[in-house]
Amino acid sequence: MTLEVLVIAAFRIGGSLPVLRWPLAGGLLAILVDLSDLLLRDVLELGGVPDYQSLDKWLDQVYMAAFLVVALRWQGLERAVAVGLYVFRLVGFAVFEVTGERAVLLLFPNVFELWFLVMVAIHRLRPGTVLPPVATALVLAGLVVVKELQEWALHGARLFDGISSLEFLDQVRRWLTGET
């Protein structure tokens, strides 16, 4: 285990904990911190990350467990959906770890994190709102589509495997400023 892995792990774990106190802000922070480890990996030179995909999925378990702790405070269908989605992704994580095949993640998309963010946003912005079953199904269908597209881009087509986060940010900057 390299110092770089330890720094990234500490950052990711620390970024997961605020959700326990501030579910919406903490959830958004956890997702941003999850994304930022790519940047850390690109700028740190502390021994490298031997297997980034596996490390990332293990560290995802920390924020997802924190999300689950919060979701267990919910009631009814929203809680049941959260637990089901958590277990579903946990199975996918286990299959990924056994096989090492990233395409498995397409079969087990992390809809749990999006469900969590939607629900905490509803709780924060419209306290007391309970989604009826039909609305729950529609929200879930939309979240599955969004997450499958993301999983496909990351793990199916591997669109970002050939580019560092710094190169990606530079391309975004050039696009925003009209540079070619």
Describe the structure in your own words.
The structure is a single chain. The chain is an all-alpha fold. The protein has one domain. Helices cover 75% and strands 0% of the residues. The protein contains 8 helices and no strands. The chain has helices at 3-16, 23-43, 52-71, 76-99, 104-107, 111-125, 133-156, 165-177. Helix 3 (52-71) packs antiparallel against helix 4 (76-99) and helix 4 (76-99) runs antiparallel to helix 6 (111-125). The longest helix has 24 residues, at 76-99.
What features would you highlight for this structure?
75% helix, 180 residues, mainly alpha
Helices and strands in order:
Elements (H helix, E strand, L loop, with lengths): L2 H14 L6 H21 L8 H20 L4 H24 L4 H4 L3 H15 L7 H24 L8 H13 L3
At a glance:
The chain is mainly alpha-helical. Helix content is 75%, strand content 0%.
Shape: globular
What would the average pLDDT be, to the nearest integer?
Answer: 92
Largest sheet: none
Put simply, the count of helices is 8
Count of separate structural domains:
1
Order of helices and strands: HHHHHHHH
Q: What structural class is derived from the secondary structure elements?
A: mainly alpha
Distance between the amino and carboxyl termini: 40 Å
- Uncertain parts: none
Total number of beta strands:
0
Give the helix proportion (percent range). over 70%
- Rg calculated over all Cα atoms: 17 Å
Q: Percent of residues in beta strands? A: under 5%
